[in-house]
Amino acid sequence: MEGEVGMRVAVLGLGSMGAGMAASLRQTGHTVTGFDVVDASRNAFAAGGGTAATSAAEAAKGADAVVSVVVNASQTEALLFGEGGVAAAMQAGAVFVSCATMDPDAARSLAARLEASGQHYLDAPMSGGPARAATGELTVMASGSAAAFGQARPVLDAIAAKVYELGDAAGAGAAFKMINQLLAGVHIAAACEAISFAAKQGLDLKRVYEVITASAGNSWMFENRVPHVLDGDYAPKSAVEIFVKDLGIVQDMARRERFPVPVSAAALQMFLAAAGAGMGREDDASLARVYASLSGATLPKSDGTKE
Amino acid sequence: MEGEVGMRVAVLGLGSMGAGMAASLRQTGHTVTGFDVVDASRNAFAAGGGTAATSAAEAAKGADAVVSVVVNASQTEALLFGEGGVAAAMQAGAVFVSCATMDPDAARSLAARLEASGQHYLDAPMSGGPARAATGELTVMASGSAAAFGQARPVLDAIAAKVYELGDAAGAGAAFKMINQLLAGVHIAAACEAISFAAKQGLDLKRVYEVITASAGNSWMFENRVPHVLDGDYAPKSAVEIFVKDLGIVQDMARRERFPVPVSAAALQMFLAAAGAGMGREDDASLARVYASLSGATLPKSDGTKE
């Protein structure tokens, strides 16, 4: 039923998240045009039946909603206001749905600039991986004007199982997301510190996983990431560099606000160590390998033996 | 049916945990004798219908099982082998069930000394608070010889909903517990860092709690401790000093094993700061008050206003 009942939506950024969201939007009946600066991503999207544009501005032209699935604030700014930026191409009354995790100040600044020219900006960072993007079951932490929410509603309905409406201006969505990322990053580092320390002591790691996930030491991230360590599988489900970026934003925000964050600062050092050791694009459970290499702890290998 | 079908059990340490365990043991039909060096605890136990002994050794004499509910390794050592210690009073074949959280090396040492004189030692640190102690629903992370487990079984059945059997010698139970405490301590500090940082940004903290507990940033501790901050209630459900102790043990173990633990080291500093600021005996969610006092963040007060 594509195109019969829906909006015209541009999806900018066709990596695993953007491609999944585009698919969800098409399945819900929207007319989707996609663009990615990477040829392979654009071609894969077209090969899957999507309509690929030759530029971001072309995709955005005439769209009711433009969904930005790029990585950070500077990419979002370039996409909106750089050479060939979409702000100039978007029609009046259209909404820009910004999904990147960024400093709330950056979200406020981008929104103010776009709103000045008569378009709407929804600050809408997401939670949930590619699998949930593909099934339209993301969680969105959103804030923006009533007009932005109103215009973006059909998009949100298509891509998200849960939309938190967190305020009437850009910035609140970003701020909530950063609180989540602070915790998530610390919990990944703590999980890797703990499971490697258990390995150093020669404990049965599968038993550690069983006991901890049923105890007060559990976290969403411990439960989700430690299986990668148990399997010796560091193929990137979420890469080390993501939290180098996100805990970096936390540090920048906290420094600006004169707020000490010693625990997340320590966690960031471990993500930096993993990236510095060459694992930046591998799974973030790779922090366990850093602890192991620093201590002589023995972790499981992917073939079931120990490395 | 007290005393009709059960064992003779001594419970040494009648604080909120020990008193609850003694109650569970009595309800299950065991004959319980209790002792505490604190007169008030001993008198409260007697007033509640318990049989209080005049010394630990008197309580242990003739007991089939001696349950030690003291705070740490040094108290456990003093209880067993100090002046008037129970090791000399325990009959051959009786089991000493040690519930304190301690360094695995200390557990191994205590077990070896007690086993040398013909008694059994079960390394049995617990998880779960006073409420679950009172209903016999603790979680126990236990290790010890088959004889120790066999002799302690009726006690474990009475006090625990779940018993993890983690090895055939003392030390493994303690090691698993320390992995849990590493994570739990980091997660408390991270929860306080995050919720205070949210307060500094002026976010709606109840909404933060709602969003985070449904997101990847969640932890058992975030879910459990942040409500104390939202209520401005720092009456001690678990005191700051507990994790000064337990993360201190983690640091001691890690230093000895040449294992770097930067994340839990940073968390310990925040527990030390809270204790140093005079909150050692208050709830461990007090770390949020340390962050607030260092940054000018405004947290909820117990009367519903902000402090």
Automatic annotation (TrEMBL), chains A, B:
Its EC number is 1.1.1.411. SUPFAM superfamilies: 6-phosphogluconate dehydrogenase C-terminal domain-like, NAD(P)-binding Rossmann-fold domains. The keyword NADP applies. This is L-threonate dehydrogenase. Belongs to the HIBADH-related family. L-threonate dehydrogenase subfamily. One of its GO terms (biological process) is organic acid catabolic process. PROSITE patterns: 3_HYDROXYISOBUT_DH. Residues 9-167 form the 6-phosphogluconate dehydrogenase NADP-binding domain. GO terms for molecular function: NAD binding; NADP binding; oxidoreductase activity, acting on the CH-OH group of donors, NAD or NADP as acceptor. It catalyses: L-threonate + NAD(+) = 2-dehydro-L-erythronate + NADH + H(+). Catalyzes oxidation of L-threonate to 2-oxo-tetronate. Can use either NAD(+) or NADP(+) as cosubstrate, with a preference for NAD(+). The lineage of its organism: Bacteria, Pseudomonadati, Pseudomonadota, Alphaproteobacteria, Hyphomicrobiales.
